[in-house]
Write a structure and sequence with these properties.
Length: 659
């Protein structure tokens, strides 16, 4: 029964059981408390040491420069059908035998090397000094693998020379090097050399070597000479920068006054370098034949974006107009100098894949390239195309060997069994897999890298030997496809440090204008620079900040060059959620940018001259940023040549611009 004599009710619950062991219970609770305290202390200490990272120690910026965090690159190339060279070792693939050519590079302090085609000599480069992204100056030694003798590589009557380039040919001990912008040739490693060109001028006329524009923006290499397969001829470009305005590249060396280096830099609407293609005979006559551009390009500015030998005597050349919406593929007879049009491509927007080398049949009647192929409502994608002339007429026969809503990123090789080897993004735009496809119906396609079963490895590259039996170093590696920020390639960068050490979420986006997702997405920025891509970035960020683990009040943006231009536009946008931004070497005035860039997209020369449109980010735009943006930083790396410092002043207040 319940007794209600007190405000709080008490109930009769019957007799109480036996006395409990309160002392034992207390001791048990104390032990549990001590154990939980140790566990909590351990969690706090580990969290403090690892920056809150449950997977191990945090990645610091200095770690990126340590060997343990660098990608292993064996630097292997094919020197015969079954041999490759790898860090002064020769590997026989059929027998899996490794032979050391010599064991130490410290003896000569060499950082670059190349083995002669007959495998009797090694070319060693030392005292290497970088010029631009690909080019460098170096001194060279020729090392005899049998006698161990060493001799310096110098032009006639010159000692202790610094060369702009040196490399073996394709037969025996052929050797070519470039000194003072002229090409020199040796038939043997120990023979005297003779000069093939004489028009070279430092910083003005380049023979067999690229100037800044062709190295950085057109060919993406410093080499502009090509051996014929039998080594009897050498094709080379002559690039003349005499009419190109120069840019001053400041170099801050710690002295009171910074030093500067001038280099030709054609800007929007300014003169481009003139370029011509020549072929010289190496039989002793030094006969030079100039290969003329197509008639439609003779009176206009053009680029030469690709040169490759189709046979021992025929050379394939691709000519592209300055606006980059028309390209002509020619096949030139180097004995007569006559060039025949093999294929013409035009676009209402611009053309991509213009550095791609076509592969020809033995009789040159059939060749293979990648071309856009429509895939229903998905748009057009680049696929392997076989183009040939009908035997009874000049009618062109076009057949597509691959198809689908994915891109073929690179054609690698063609073997005697009529199979093609290529890299594609069939499994997704972030991946690259190695495939083989037959040129015979039904065009059977096989993925070769898919069967390797390497965990977390889906971005491959390959080098095919001449017998097509070996894939050298089929590994995940860094690649730089145009306009692609998101891929399965492995890399470590400053962003990796932000993620592991500073608890920052880093997001990348491939929106309109990015590559390997078809022509529709690639051309999505045509006439819409800084518009469509900004909309895509804002839409992606607005989706991300809705996630529960993202702090929408602390969102920043970082960009470099064109990305710096977008970073500023994102901060200026009225719908932007960004609170701070970093713009490294941003493009602030299209008039000041290199002539190759974006001219095909915006046709800025015509717009600027006819409509007098000024594509400039002014200081008033940045100073009067929308409310909520707390900080903006604009910077430019010292010695940056791709985006000159002249583009930064429009972002600076007038007093700083004057100083």
């Amino acid at each position: 029964s319940c007794l209600r004599s007190f405000p709080t009710p008490f109930c009769d619950i019957g007799p109480i059981g036996p006395d409990r062991n309160w002392k034992g219970i207390g001791i048990s609770l104390l032990v549990i408390a001590v154990v939980l305290s140790f566990i909590g202390l351990s969690i706090v200490l580990l969290s403090k040491d690892n920056g809150g990272n449950p997977f191990g120690s945090q990645l610091m910026l200095d770690d990126l420069f340590q060997r343990n965090f660098q990608i292993h690159d064996p630097d292997a190339t094919w020197i015969s059908r079954t041999l490759s060279k790898n860090n002064f070792r020769q590997i026989q693939y059929k027998t899996d035998k490794t032979v050391f050519l010599f064991t130490s590079q410290v003896t000569f302090k060499a950082t670059k090397f190349a083995v002669s085609p007959d495998k009797n000599f090694v070319l060693l480069g030392y005292d290497v000094r970088q010029v631009y992204q690909h080019s460098f100056l170096a001194s060279y030694l020729v090392y005899n693998l049998h006698t161990r003798e060493v001799r310096e590589l110098n032009p006639p009557e010159v000692s202790d020379s610094v060369l702009q380039f040196a490399s073996w040919g394709v037969q025996g001990q052929q050797l070519v090097y470039i000194f003072e912008n002229n090409i020199y040739y040796q038939t043997h490693a120990q023979s005297s050399s003779w000069r093939l060109t004489s028009s070279g001028q430092e910083g003005v006329v380049f023979n067999g070597l690229a100037d800044w524009l062709y190295e950085e923006e057109v060919l993406h290499t410093q080499v502009t000479h090509w051996w014929s397969p039998d080594g009897s001829r050498l094709a080379y470009l002559t690039i003349n920068d005499s009419m190109v305005p120069t840019m001053l590249l400041p170099r801050f060396t710690g002295s009171l006054y910074p030093r500067g280096k001038e280099y030709p830099y054609p800007k929007m609407g300014q003169m481009n370098p003139s370029v011509s293609l020549h072929v010289v005979s190496l039989d002793g006559s030094s006969l030079v034949t100039e290969l003329r551009p197509p008639d439609s390009f003779v009176e206009s500015e053009f680029y030469i974006t690709m040169v490759t030998w189709a046979t021992h005597e025929k050379l394939s050349v691709r000519w592209v107009n300055r606006v980059q919406n028309t390209s002509i593929l020619s096949l030139c007879d180097t004995t007569t100098g006559v060039c025949i049009k093999k294929h013409v491509m035009t676009s209402e927007k611009w053309l991509d894949h213009q550095n791609e080398e076509p592969l020809f049949s033995d009789d040159c009647t059939t060749f293979f390239i990648t071309m856009p192929l429509k895939d229903g409502n998905h748009g057009a994608f680049n696929h392997i195309t076989m183009i040939s002339n009908q035997s009874s007429s000049q009618e062109v026969n076009v057949r597509h060997l691959t198809s689908g809503n994915w891109d073929v990123s690179q054609i690698l090789s063609y073997d005697e069994k009529r199979n093609w080897y290529f890299l594609s993004a069939e499994d997704g735009p972030t991946q690259r897999q190695l495939y083989r496809v037959s040129t015979v119906d039904p065009f059977r396609k096989t993925c070769l890298s898919c069967s390797l079963f390497r965990p977390n490895c889906s971005f491959y590259d390959a080098s095919i030997s001449s017998t097509h039996q070996h894939c050298s170093d089929c590994i995940c590696r860094d690649s730089t496809p145009g306009g692609q920020a998101v891929s399965d390639r492995f890399s470590l960068s400053w962003e990796s440090v932000l993620v592991t050490s500073d608890q920052v979420i880093v997001a990348r986006l491939d929106g309109r204008g990015s590559g390997f997702q078809g022509q529709r997405i690639l051309h999505g920025l045509h006439q819409r620079l800084g518009s469509a891509d900004v909309q895509d970035q804002i839409a992606a960020v607005e989706h991300l900040i809705k996630l529960p683990y993202v702090d929408g009040s602390r969102v920043g943006v970082y960009g470099k060059a064109y990305g710096g231009f977008l970073s500023i536009l994102l901060l200026l946008s009225h719908t932007s959620v960004f609170k701070c931004g970093i713009a490294v070497a941003p493009i602030t005035n299209w008039r000041l940018f290199a002539s190759v860039h974006f001219q095909h997209s915006a046709e800025l020369v015509k717009l600027l001259s006819v409509l007098n449109v000024n594509y400039t980010l002014q200081v008033t735009s940045v100073v009067h940023l929308k409310a909520g943006v707390r900080s903006v930083m604009s910077s430019r790396r010292e010695g940056g040549d791709e985006v000159p410092a002249a583009k930064a002043p429009p972002l600076l207040p007038p007093p700083l611009r004057m100083s």
